[in-house]
Amino acid sequence: MQRLWSFDHGIDFLNHGSFGACPGPVLDFQRQVQQRLERQPIRFFLEDCEPALDEVRSVLGRFLKASPADLVFVPNATAGVNTVLRSLPWRRGDELLVTDHAYNACRNALDFVAARAKARVVSVAMPFPLRDASEVMEPILEAVTSRTRLALLDHVTSPTALVLPIAELVRELDRRGVETLVDGAHAPGMLPLDLTRIGAAYYTGNCHKWICAPKGAGFLHVRGDRQARIRPLSISHGANSPRRDRSRFQLEFGWTGTADPSPYLCVPEAIRVMGGLVAGGWRGLMRRNRELALAARGRLCRALSIEPPCPESMLGSLAAIPLPDQRGSKVSRFGLDPLNDRLWREFRIEVPVFPWPAAPKRLLRISAQLYNHEDQYERLAQALIQLLT
């Protein structure tokens, strides 16, 4: 499988989770789309682009088990989170729920809107390591009060790689009158998704990570009864369009200014290409990646004499492993532990090591994608033994 990707020779790339990696056939397709655009930009944007994006929504809707009418495109999940948070009318005293495993960029967006409205962010402490999903459910639900307006929850937590019981959380929060905004950055292509069944008011995800579309392809799913409140970050022509052939929601998000739409237009091709690489299609791909991640986690835990920090049932194709405390508290300008740099420079292994919850505590997070194989994790295990002892 490695020949389909463009990695430099001689590196072990074990960090698909950060930015994804797009296979060559999909990049070739993107170049064709861009060339088509540049041959006649006016006709492309005025006539071709909208129906082409409608078809993308149809394909993506089937993949996510969602109505295309409820899907719009955003560059990434962070933009999706910001879109929802900046649209809703917060009031003084509102409580916005989040966990201490939240992605930092999205937590910053939550803090920003809360500060402007004099609302309150309530951070729920979730344990890690943990024994089972109840240790996630209970503290979140116990933090709900009569002032809780919204919960921002990760489907797959970025630092700790936990797959949260998101459908159950959405259901229980809804019973308590709390809307849920799901940051599903890692979920599409890693986990089988049924957004209709999950039922969240808002769900945003990336297509450039585990679906392997080009960078800049994300989506926002807004339940039909919530769409009137959600506006794009850039208000543009759709705000006063006289058209009546589609919803105001689609009109506003359908054109927010001139941009390269090729990442979105490549999503069906990425779904097709990736789904054709493994027996069993996407189900087979997800199963293969998860099994490799579990085997790799077991190999690393045994090599370092570390107990697995969470049950296998809470993992997809990412896994986080606590490492011995750092000697000191240095971090790079990107917030990474110095061990991250040593693994790259001395062993040509690309894998994130970061302080969590704060230095000197730290985690290593591995990814498993089709281009990865067991020997790479064995080399990582041997490098860690050498560097940590």
Which SSEs are present, and which pair or pack?
Blueprint: E1 12-13, H1 16-19, H2 24-39, H3 41-64, E2 71-74, H4 77-87, E3 95-99, H5 104-117, E4 120-124, H6 134-142, E5 148-154, H7 166-175, E6 179-184, H8 195-198, E7 202-206, E8 218-222, H9 248-254, H10 262-265, H11 267-275, H12 281-304, E9 318-323, H13 338-347, E10 349-350, E11 353-355, E12 362-367, H14 374-388
Parallel strand pairs: 1-10, 3-4, 3-5, 5-6, 6-7
Antiparallel strand pairs: 2-8, 7-8, 9-12, 11-12
Helix pairs in contact: 2-3, 4-5, 12-14, 13-14
3D structure, described in words:
There is one protein chain. Strand 3, helix 5 and strand 4 form a beta-alpha-beta unit. This protein starts with 11 loop residues before the first strand and ends with a helix. 43% of the residues are buried. The chain has 389 residues and is α/β, with parallel strands linked by helices. It is globular and about 70 Å long. The protein folds into 2 domains: 2-21 and 280-388, Aspartate Aminotransferase, domain 1, CATH 3.90.1150.10; 25-272, Aspartate Aminotransferase, domain 2 (3-Layer(aba) Sandwich). It has 14 helices and 12 strands. Helix 12 runs parallel beside helix 14 and helix 13 crosses helix 14.
